[in-house]
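Illustration 12: BlaR1 peptidase M56.
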Amino acid sequence: METYIFKIVLCSSLFILFYNLVLKNEKLLKFNRFYLIATLLISLAIPFLHYEIASVEVQKISGLQFGESENTIQNIAIKNSIFTFQNVIFTLYFLIIFFLLIKFLLNLWQINREISSNEKVKNGAFWLILKNEKTAPHSFWKYIFINKNDFQKGNINEKIILHETAHLEQKHSLDLLFIELFLIFFWFNPAFYLYKKAILTNHEYLADDLVLSKSGNVSEYQNLLLTQLISEKIFFSNSFNLINTKNRIKMMTKTLSKTAKLKSWMSIPLVAIAFFTFAEKIPAKEISIKSTREISLNKIDFINETKIHYLKREKDTIKKDTLKPMKQILEKKPEIAPPVPPVKIKTKDKIESPVAPPLPPIADKIDESAEFPGGINALRTQVANTFDISKMSGNEGLIKSTIYFKIDEKGVASNFRAEGTNEIFNAEAIRDLKFVNDGKIWKPAILDGKPVASVYKLPLTMKFEFAQQSK
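Figure caption equivalent — predicted structure in token form:
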């Protein structure tokens, strides 16, 4: 998920940078409004899209290895700790969202209270809200908020009312609500704050343009802007002098340049560039496997809840002819049972490992270890055969994971949990172990002649080397 967030930030930054450098000072007012809203949505969508690229993926796999048990006793934590860095980040993220959402709702409530508690005067399709306290003219939804005393004395110029009416007719309030909701859930993205500023500025340009189209007196309207004093910040509203007056006056005197339309058309290749840069690239599934899978059959730990008991047993051996090269395994279906169809997992995503509930008390000492049907070698072979390496496309280097699961006194395996730095490898290892153990009954561990619950530890290691070769 972190990858997608990073792509959203970069993609939105690219779009707003183009706007500020190319479109901002052009009198493309309606197009600019469309561009700002559209690219906001596009920047959110592109990182979740994907396209295929023609290539041959060469996989080099050194082997799936099962770690050897340790010959010393050590403590081990079976329960999942909630105090992880990831949990802290997620908690902070949602706390900030909560407070911003409360602020958003309070602002809406404040506007609603002003509407219901003040005198209202019908003005065409909209309402004038006459406030007793001193306030700058501003608008929201279908209401224009002005000072009651100024209105009754005729101190409010009709062009001011026309300006605020333009905001309402063009439904600028929808844009404001839209960007505010974006900032609640994506408060960490600095580009969206630049979007908000650009949207508000463009709203003022649009309203000014409508006023001038009806009055036609540019200099008179400019003088009105210069004499209008605003000292109060109004949340969720279009303040008459919210944006720098100097920029508004400059925009009034501008005409459509010869290159303006060309600049607007440049946004199309920009979106295409963003798509091919930030969308997920999925290689065509044409895979060439250059190496075989070797299975290292080292010992597996058999442990209780707090201690690892090294079992002094003869090292298990497997005849060489029982080990199948990787290519043969992939071409030939496993004799036990085919793996369940793999769930599509985007490589760049970070996948949460399934969290197992706390394990019940486990016996402190074990006289006889639990045993998989057919023995340890059968477990290793089945795990190797059903491991789906295609899900590891794009990963490189040495990847390790340790799988823990419970074997109850009836021989049923459950509560699978993985510890490792690669979440995709963890998830596939858990899926693999669950599939292998589905319907299997272990010989449970024995303590004092009776079957008892125990915990199994299975270390896995695999080295991946992937190379893309375009056709």
